[in-house]
Write a structure and sequence with these properties.
mainly alpha, 2-methylcitrate dehydratase PrpD, two-stranded antiparallel sheet, IRG1 decarboxylase, MmgE_PrpD_N, MmgE/PrpD_sf, aconitate decarboxylase activity
């Protein structure tokens, strides 16, 4: 099935699949996303979701970008940081329209911070997770019949 094939491809990816070119492009995408995200922490919408998310707490927490000492459960940290990235609408895009790094990087970083200290992931593992997330998003986009019509709607 399409779903089974999709799952097999994603499950079979490992760090050996990351070419030098993919690693370099990924690093550039990550750096760009972090920069846009830090800029976005000053937007009104980011302030609103940050205030909203302060009601949540957990024994496991992740960093909120641009706010020293303020942490949230990984789910909410990914949400707040993702809003920060996309709030300026300068994050990377694909055609048809989607913003891959703004959705993937905040989730990957929040989850990586949630690992216990003795199970921390390496930078290469983070790059792999980032690229798997980008691959998933790209494939879902290709499978979507609605995504194909986005340019015609605008």
């Amino acid at each position: 099935t399409i779903t089974g094939n999709f799952a097999n491809v994603i499950h079979g990816l490992n760090a050996n699949h990351l070419t030098d070119q993919v690693i370099q492009r990924s690093k550039r995408m990550i750096l760009d996303t972090l920069g846009v995200g830090l800029l976005g922490t000053n937007t009104e919408v980011c302030h609103k979701v940050t205030q909203y998310s302060k009601i949540y707490s957990s024994d496991i927490s992740s960093t909120i970008w641009g706010h020293l000492g303020f942490r949230l459960p990984p789910l909410y940290a990914a949400f707040v940081n993702g809003v920060a990235v996309h709030s300026m609408d300068f994050d990377d895009t694909w055609h048809p329209a989607t913003h891959p790094s703004g959705a993937v990087l905040p989730a990957v970083i929040a989850l990586s911070e949630a690992f216990p200290q003795k199970k921390k992931i390496s930078g290469l593992d983070l790059l792999l997770a980032f690229n798997v997330g980008i691959e998933v998003q790209g494939r879902l986009l290709r499978f979507s019949s609605e995504a194909r019509n986005i340019p015609k709607r605008y």
